């Protein structure tokens, strides 16, 4: 097992339960940082030792900026850094993939089981008073109140569902991996460089363990290193677009043109309000508790926007303002833009070239612009403008919103698609998650999603973990 993140922890647990001898290799360390466990402190983890701290290449359609992409480098992976929000997605997402075993009818009962089995998914309550006012403002602006966005209907404003237990973060490492850690071999500080092969059969990995390069053997390798690292490991191993690999001096083991392609992500743009009434922080509570889904135009199969609401001003480094306030982060969740993950060289030390192609598709841009405008409108509702004295600080009145969106779009942290599941020429894994053309290799993480779901991607990543385990164990 490569990677102890959202999906990897699940696969490892299920394989241990099935009696397999599992070695779990995690590049990061133990999850000892208190900020991981305190839901109010997740923001402190960015740029720290538990963050891979990746950046995109300059984004042409987002004012040429390099976007920070935090990713978890610790037991628990990105589920140790994330906001813990649990969104299954829309039935049309899964049905739209057109893959056997992955329709909504297939996955809906699996989600229901996951949420009650080892993991715990609970409403993000009690609401901070400003979050309750945001709900009221949304309703006043004409949005329906949706009691549960995981019911199959996303539209409307909802209290988030989160993975929390006893007031502490409860991620898949805590729920699945840690309880059986003594029954497997867990290596932290284990950076996997590449796969080993005998012909087209994968026989193990080359891994740096405590700084020493070693070769480990395995009957089966499961890559669960996430949407940015899993394709990178494949490419370094000679699995990917043949011309691209040869140009880097790598021997081609399997010509799979889809590896590292089809990268896509959701995007946010901050809409930040100052208030005349102080927004007093609630210690121990998440700073985001409410989100909403909305269709910015007619004819869409699913909502194209999902703003997420914070009880703090989410200033970018170049912004300034009072320390209290709130943010309605406008969000675009139906990206048409497609980018890529490429190597700049054959070593894990060589920088990854990550191109989200952010806002390159006009529809993505229009959705995010519409979402910013709607967030501004919600902020004008009496529940916020009246009760809290809310005034937009970013974008300030008179700002060209279209230009603002290009200048401020940031990741929603939902990268997927780089080891796309399917059967066509660009597919990397088949619908049972086995890599095309190779034996003994499975990819089980968010990279396999052929098209991102409508909403946050942790729940789909956990689903991928459970599906992989089911395919491998037959249970
Ligand atoms: C800041 C942030 C906030 C987010 N908020 C939410 C949210 O609230 N709700 C939601 O649904 N989604 C959220 N997401 C997204 C969600 O967390 C991810 O989609 C999900 O965790 C992906 O799971 P994964 O198993 O694919 O990868 P990960 O959980 O990232 O796991 C990959 C693991 O592999 C390890 N690894 C990588 N390379 C190597 C290597 N070479 N050798 C060994 N190990 C390696 C990593 O260290 C990591 O532990 C957020 C993400 C971030 C970063």
TrEMBL record:
<dbReference type="InterPro" id="IPR036188">
    <property type="entry name" value="FAD/NAD-bd_sf"/>
</dbReference>
<dbReference type="InterPro" id="IPR007867">
    <property type="entry name" value="GMC_OxRtase_C"/>
</dbReference>
<dbReference type="Pfam" id="PF05199">
    <property type="entry name" value="GMC_oxred_C"/>
</dbReference>
<dbReference type="Pfam" id="PF00732">
    <property type="entry name" value="GMC_oxred_N"/>
</dbReference>
<dbReference type="InterPro" id="IPR000172">
    <property type="entry name" value="GMC_OxRdtase_N"/>
</dbReference>
<keyword id="KW-0285">Flavoprotein</keyword>
<feature type="domain" description="Glucose-methanol-choline oxidoreductase N-terminal">
    <location>
        <begin position="226"/>
        <end position="240"/>
    </location>
</feature>
<protein>
    <submittedName>
        <fullName>GMC oxidoreductase</fullName>
    </submittedName>
</protein>
<comment type="similarity">
    <text>Belongs to the GMC oxidoreductase family.</text>
</comment>
<keyword id="KW-0274">FAD</keyword>
<dbReference type="InterPro" id="IPR012132">
    <property type="entry name" value="GMC_OxRdtase"/>
</dbReference>
